[in-house]
Amino acid sequence: MQEGTKRIYLESPYKVEFEAQVVEKVIWEKKPALILDQTCFYPESGGQPCDKGTINEVEVLKVLEDEARIIHLLAEDISSDKITGKIEWQTRFDHMQQHSGQHILSQSFHELLGAETLSFHLGEAISSLEMDIRKISEEEVENVERRANEIVFQDREIKCYFIPEEKIGSVPLRRPPKKKGLIRVVEVSDFDFSACGGTHVHRAGEIGLIKILKLERIRNNVRFEFICGKRTLEDYLWKNRILRELSTRFTVNEGEILNTVEKLSSDLKSQKRKGKKMQEKIAQYEAQEIIQETKEKIIKELFVDKTPEEVRFLVLNIIRKGDFVVLFGLKGEERGHLILGCSENINIDMREIVPLVSPLIKGKGGGRSSLVEIAGEEIANLEQALERAFEFIKKKMGLDL
């Protein structure tokens, strides 16, 4: 049986520098790696990422568990058998804040709603909890948030200790432990008891503000995204910066921004409706003008100064006013468009053209028998694509134009 690595972080999470003896050098995930007799580096485990830092000034890329051993993957090999490890403190403390905050948040959900924590993920920017909740109101979310922060403001002690498996019944654990043997308990004084091997702060006040950012339904449960501590401060700073900027631009108080945006949104929708009606009227006039000027049944043209919607209106108005086939192209800034239509009295399925011209403009499209649209990135080939569609229609109609 392999001897395990002593985990200094379990007893001393604030310790950021340590010395150790190299027990074994290995290649792990194609990287040089060390197994030490003891370490301060926390390995990836329990939803918490590993620590960052250096060993003998060499970057530690990843820290993993291999049963009782801890594997330190390095950026390059180290020759010495004695090492000095240094933990990157900002990352360690951030993880301590998030993980301790999660315990308090989970127990707040459990206390107020009877909800169990199904999974926890400590992300680089945002952490998440999946709870066995079918539905939850905004008021309930806010109550949970207030309760969690109440525990933080009380600055309750957070202590970690080990209990033999046979005595675990003496501790009111929120969830049964997954491991056997000696169980590590993380206790938030008179509030939460959890089996956990992570790194935690010593007092709840160190966590800082706990903030739930959003929730989403997943697998008949609810996933909550949250942040704690410095992450919450940074989140508040950029959001407040945006509010101040919007307040200045709209010349309103911050509390009036939402009403102002709603009014602007309503006005914009109204203007879009008016604009659409105007586009339709313009398309009617243009269609009539094109019909009067042409003597052909097939109308082909390439535009550069219209939107796809304007061209679509134009095609529809022409094919409704007589027996025509309309082949229009549009050169956009980034994409080319083909909008092809025919009157109902003309027995042609325009969908047959799509596979003939789509490859020319590296596009995709579709539609109904009387109208198809194709968009592609090869703008330079639009004229060639229109010409191919033109030849196809001539053949279908038996015309010699």
TrEMBL record:
It is found in: Cytoplasm. InterPro entries: Ala-tRNA-synth_IIc_core, Ala-tRNA-synth_IIc_N, Alanyl-tRNA_Editing_Enzymes, Thr/Ala-tRNA-synth_IIc_edit, Transl_B-barrel_sf, tRNA_SAD. Its cofactor is Zn(2+). Residues 261-288 form a coiled coil. Transmembrane segments: none annotated. SMART domains: tRNA_SAD (SM00863). Gene3D superfamilies: 2.40.30.130, 3.10.310.40, Threonyl-trna Synthetase, Chain A, domain 2 (3.30.980.10). Its main location: cytoplasm. This is Alanyl-transfer RNA synthetases family profile domain-containing protein. It comes from marine sediment metagenome.
